[in-house]
Amino acid sequence: MLIAILAFSFAIFGISGVRVVLGIVFITIPFYFILNNFQLSDSEKFVFSLLFGITIFPSLVYLLGFLISFKLSILIVFLIMITVGIFAKRIRHT
Amino acid sequence: MKLNKNYIQTFIFILVYLFAIYFWSQPYQERKLPYGEHDAVSHFEVGDYMAYNDKSFQKLPPYIDIRYGHDNKFKPHTLWYPPTFHSALGVIEVIGGERIVSIFLLNTVMATFIIISIYFVINSLFGFFPAILSSLFIIFSPRDFMPYLWGQWPERFAYAFIPIILYCFYKYFISFSKDESKPIYFYLTALFLGINLLIHPLVFFHSIVGLIVLYAALSLKQKKFVFSFKHTTIGAVIFLILFLMFPYQTFNIFPQISPQSYIGNEQRKTPDLSRLFHWSLDPDIYAGSVPAWYFSFKDMNGLWTLPFLLFGIFFLVLRREDKDLFMLAWLISLYIILHRDIFGKAAFLHRSLSATAHIFAPLTAIGAVYLGSFVKMPLKYNRYLKYAMVLVFAYFVFSINFVGASKMLNKNTYNPYTNDGFLSSLNNEEYQAGQWVLENVPDAFNITLLGIPYTSNFLELTAKKIRWMAAVSQHVYRFYYLLDGRDEYLKHNYVLLDYTLLGALNDKETLNEMQSFEKNKLANHTLVYDKNNIRVYKPELKKQ
């Protein structure tokens, strides 16, 4: 499915379109990991993580962007959110 | 087998959604140039500034402040919207690696997210056919894509949260009443409600009314009072954290709704009770800002939808299952929102009209798909009838709604090389010049501009072009002939002469004037950019 979406994006928007799609996946994935710890259906996890990715992720980047570079904030927030997802999973299992 | 069915249904939805992205992105697919009304400029500016300058900001830079410096009544000269929406544009511009496609494509994804929300909610409650037909219908809903084109970007995205918020609360309520409480859905309701406020306050109030009506409807049906102190407290804390995340912006709601504000003054208008018998609004009130056809059911939905819509409502009222009440509560909440002027809340009423397709589409699709349930016949034939109705629905959508929508939204929409965008959108030559100014002109200088028509008969359109120039180059632009003290201004600022429009306008008089201006007025300036019929001059004196 993702390959089909990437192919579509490349055909219509060029390499920028591909990067946008990968960007959306990038900011969404940490929330999918977090939501994976709850009893939600696959479609719920997919839609909710997309919404959180497009809203919560950039909000945190914005806040961190006052202290460090905006670009670096994107990476830091990604690492923090992934860590939260992993910890949430471990806490749930223990 | 079931997995395969789900997989195929998901694949069909993805195809439909990709078509939505294709259809809505037509204005920038080939040209890759920015376009849209004044609101679009502002949203582009805020997201782009973060990404291009690699920093977050609170205080508005001059080229944004000149128009929006006082839109935040709580903290003037700072961002007037919570930065959630715009920082998403900024993040994707960084990842996308360029300015136009990244921002405009993410905006298209966000504006069409309502299609994902509707598909997800309706598929969860009513199954695949009503869901996919609703999604298909909304692609061609002018009340969705026109505000998107006009530039009401955050509002479009915010509407995608209403069905999600109602769905989460519905799941919480249903699970609660079955004594197997799932508080996660209540916390998700609070989270999405908080995010909804950060995206657009107007839509947040719509969500609140929706929740109240849904709660009342389910409580009456189940004759149960659902309340948990623990869940409510945790939900309230989640919401408060989000509310306080950007206080300068969220606190701006209070002065906005105070009696002294524009919105407050709007509230004092005498209510017109006859409106209770109409869904839509009086187009005459909005003449000049919103076209009359925007208020017409026929033009926005097609008259073919009316029997299905009425049947859908009739079917749900008759059946009254919990999920049916979900839809009816959503419909009633929209009715209340669209008639809030009766309660003295008239501001931005027409904006709420853009939410109609989100509930009308699924009700119409439910009406079509369940029509067969009223005809007594063997199950096999009933199924055939359902498939036939699905095809009929799709046929009408493509033959009527798609055709109508294609006239409004196509590759020529806002095209600077056709009449549609000649005066309002940037052409490629202007965009390149703007990009050059961004990279070469120090922040301390402003740009004064000649060559773009500035007289009152043109200004409504060309004001957009000059604002796009400012957005692309991140500098303040002023029409030379509209300046006070223009000779003094000229000495300290850059001058941009745009010859790209004059040929098409056949304006020889302005051409001669501009050439003479270059010769006589710019003797002490240095030509620093001369490309594609655009020239930029640098002042000799540095700004004091």
Strand order, main sheet of chain B: write it out: 2-1-3-5-4
| Mean pLDDT rating of chain A | 94
Uncertain residue segments of chain A = none
Distance between the termini of chain A: 34 Å
State the share of residues found in helices of chain A, binned by percent. over 70%
Distance between the termini of chain B: 76 Å
Q: Would you report the number of β strands of chain B?
A: 5
Q: Unreliable stretches of chain B, pLDDT < 50, 5 or more residues? A: none
What is the makeup of the main sheet of chain B? Answer: 5 strands, mixed
Specify the number of helices of chain A. Answer: 4
Report the sheet with the most strands of chain A, covering strand number, pairing sense and barrel closure: none
The number of distinct helices of chain B, counting runs of at least 4 residues, comes to 28
Shape of chain A: flat
Strand content of chain A: under 5%
Helix content of chain B: 55-70%
Order of helices and strands of chain A: HHHH
- Mean pLDDT over all positions of chain B: 93
Jot down its keywords.
heterodimer; A: 94 residues; mainly alpha; 85% helix; flat; B: 544 residues; five-stranded mixed β-sheet; 28 helices; 5 strands; 63% helix; globular
Give the helix/strand layout.
The complex is a heterodimer of chains A (94) and B (544).
Chain A: H1 2-13, H2 15-35, H3 42-64, H4 70-93
Chain B: H1 2-24, H2 26-29, H3 38-53, H4 62-68, H5 84-96, H6 100-111, H7 113-126, H8 128-139, H9 142-150, H10 153-159, H11 161-177, H12 183-199, H13 201-222, H14 229-243, H15 247-250, H16 253-257, H17 262-266, H18 297-301, H19 305-319, H20 322-338, H21 349-352, H22 356-369, H23 379-408, H24 428-440, E1 447-450, H25 456-473, E2 477-479, H26 486-492, E3 494-498, H27 502-505, H28 508-521, E4 526-531, E5 534-538
Parallel strand pairs in B: 1-2, 1-3
Antiparallel strand pairs in B: 3-5, 4-5
Helix pairs in contact in B: 1-8, 3-5, 3-25, 5-6, 7-8, 7-11, 8-22, 8-23, 11-12, 11-13, 11-20, 12-13, 12-14, 13-20, 19-20, 19-22, 20-22, 24-25
